[in-house]
Design brief:
FAD/NAD(P)-binding domain, 429 residues, 24% strand, alpha/beta
């Protein structure tokens, strides 16, 4: 049996590694179009900003190491141009054909440059791959630009803005939509605007960019227009879902038997809505990859879906989100009720600092639908508690009774998430 | 209607405040035997250790402020000596009788000094009340002792040891049982021993103390032999449960109608075992108090129970526990399986530091039973995620698929709790 994996970063390598763990006889080949495999794409901005010193620190595995340790063939600069499922083979750019019995598609995302004039100019950089980061870093060193523009106020955009600011540039962020972090949340968007301004980063919403020249910036980071790479799959007759990403079963299988998709190119189920969602993140990519790899190796594993949990640092402050913001909950057919509180993140006498918690619930069922946490400490943990509650479908009443850890150096006696739940209960009753 | 509350710290004041919120006509009187109400008992060690500068910072409410703001009568130095339920009245030490329609008993715990010779000597201090802390602090200033002994390796004992060490004393901790932190966990106990020794605090387990003189220490903190104060209740015909604390319904009602008990003197249900448990903690006391107060005010609220979550700082490192350790799980009739991992608490290239996660599950059902987290950062959050999972009865399989927050400054792409779950799954399969 031969397993071919298209894509050698998060989902692709997770699939290959898991398939190998479960079946030592499987012949496995990973085809990666870039020159690196298995790196932390989420760390690229921190390399640009100087918090990660060496770009090699972001490399989890080299092709050689992965090949040796996992007994998996890894080919870099191997771009797949077509999949022929009837013949069970993929074609490479160089004309070569690679046969498969099982196929995992982990083609990730790319930035759409078509719609922006000048997007291919030499001072314009996406920030998706190690090569992108190497080129941008080199540009900053050589050219010492004084002004920078970021297109897009998603995770990568905000992290890149902070990174360029750390390099001493004057920075502006331009976001086509009306909200930050791809979340329909006016409060969060306003918070992001203020937080960036505190660090003298200008940000404009509802500001689509169609010409790089209009930005009048010496360096531009392209962090908008991300879309799943589905062309290869679609051309082979693989179905694309309503989100624009590849439709998969809970076993990560596409409509073609034996062909799986995982990671940023696929759409898992959102466990709060019960519908497919496209929220491309490294954690989800790894999890989907493992399930795809296991099933490609003959197991029957399920990926139950996501609740859309993420965290991002915005100029030193953590912002965690999970589930649905109210506006999205409403569009999904819920009757959202929102409570938002600001409280100390630990005992006030123990240098407690303010943290914000927002919880969203459904008026009819009392079920928790989503949450937002902003603060200096404990943001990931508080977001994750909400995520765990969303996963098990807790009501606000159940959530409010959670037995959470307390000691003065770590939390106040009523944790901020519980205070938010108490407020929300009052609104629901 | 008259509500009388015996005890004016965590549970008692929570009950009084909640009853007032729900019924503005209720006549409410709080009887507190000490001279202070509403203080953070959990902060006493940090005052002794110098991290909290002023002891008044630990006072949440004064009697005057609480009386004024809540319209509740608060009497300090008012010790109740008897409850006569047939007459619906309590007797005070001065002979006065106070009538009630509803009664909340929140008498807390005390340290048993009877069994230790010399426990009343002037250099021996419990550390339960503001007065205890004031006296100990004064003693340290005036007498400048060079050697200190702590009796008991529970939360208070370990925090007190660190506090005396911070005052420059040579410190020894003497624990009668074989384990630290009241948890039957050899690994944790060994970790505590090593951690204290790194800070040059000696610790001896299986070392009961029956004579203070044997310790040859210039100051002694009595942090063992805590027991629920149930004598008053028992003498009035109120049932005491198997843990030695007051038996209550899930509405916090005792066997006497209209008489409630809450806080450290009562035994709530442990949601993992389904049986009553006595785990005296400030968070639980506050929650039980609210429910007791609501029901005393005529509502019908439930306290669903605890999962035994707590966190303590041991010489700079956080230790979070929730649910059952393996040894206890076995005694409770489960077939415990344990996985313990050590991993970075965030991306390795982002100054990740090692954190330990132990998970316990039941072999038959695959259900998660408990967890332990040790580390520098994110300990409360990780413990709380496990606590949320215990609350909803998650299996390890479900837990392993949780969608947790990831960004390099906060967590690794596979959170340590998920890596522990993966290891545990392998052992369960």
């Amino acid at each position: 049996m031969r397993l071919v994996v298209i894509g050698g970063v998060a989902a692709g390598l997770s699939a290959a590694a898991q398939a190998r763990r479960l079946d030592s006889n499987l012949e496995i080949e990973v085809l990666e179009q870039g020159s690196d495999i298995s790196y932390s794409a989420c760390g690229l901005s921190y390399f640009i900003g100087g918090e990660v010193r060496r770009i090699d620190d972001l490399v989890v595995n080299t092709a050689e190491k992965f090949e040796r340790e996992r007994d998996v063939r890894v080919r870099t600069r191997a771009r797949v141009t077509a999949i022929s499922h009837p013949r069970r083979e993929v074609s490479l750019e160089n004309g070569e054909r690679v046969r498969y019995d099982k196929l995992v598609i982990a083609t990730g995302t790319s930035v759409n440059r078509q719609s922006i004039r000048g997007a291919d100019l030499p001072h314009v950089f996406p920030l998706q791959t190690l090569d992108d980061a190497r080129r941008l870093s080199e540009f900053l060193k050589q050219r010492r630009p004084r002004t920078g523009a970021i297109i897009g106020a998603g995770y990568i955009g905000l992290e890149a803005a902070e990174a360029l600011r750390a390099n001493g540039l004057r920075v502006g962020v331009y976001e086509a939509s009306s909200t930050a972090l791809h979340r329909e949340d006016e409060f969060l968007t306003e918070w992001v605007r203020k937080q960036l301004e505190r660090f003298r980063i200008r940000v404009e919403f509802r500001r689509p960019v169609d010409d790089i020249a209009a930005l009048e910036s010496e360096v531009v980071v392209l962090a908008a227009g991300m879309r799943p790479n589905v062309e290869l799959a679609a051309a082979a007759g693989i179905e694309v879902g309503r989100t624009g990403a590849i439709r998969v079963s809970d076993q990560m299988e596409t409509n073609l038997s034996g062909v799986y998709a995982a990671g940023d190119c696929a759409e898992p189920i959102h466990r709060v809505t019960g519908r497919p969602a496209w929220i491309p993140l490294g954690t989800t990519a790894n999890k989907m990859g493992r399930v795809a790899g296991a099933n490609a190796a003959g197991k029957r594993e399920r990926f139950p879906g996501i609740v859309g949990t993420s965290i991002v640092r915005v100029c030193g402050i953590g912002v965690g989100t999970t589930g649905l913001p109210a506006a999205q909950a409403k569009r999904e057919g819920f009757s959202p009720v929102v409570a938002r509180i600001e409280n100390a993140d630990r005992a006030a006498y123990f240098r407690g600092r303010p943290t914000t918690v927002e919880l969203v619930a459904d008026r009819q069922s009392g079920r928790l639908l989503g949450g937002l946490v902003i603060g200096e400490e404990g943001v990931a943990g508080r977001t994750n508690v909400i995520a765990a509650a969303l996963t098990s479908g807790m009501t606000v009443e159940e959530f409010e009774q959670l037995d959470l850890a307390y000691a003065p150096p770590y939390a106040p006696v009523w944790d901020p998430v519980l205070i938010a739940a108490q407020q929300l209960l009052k609104l629901l009753r």
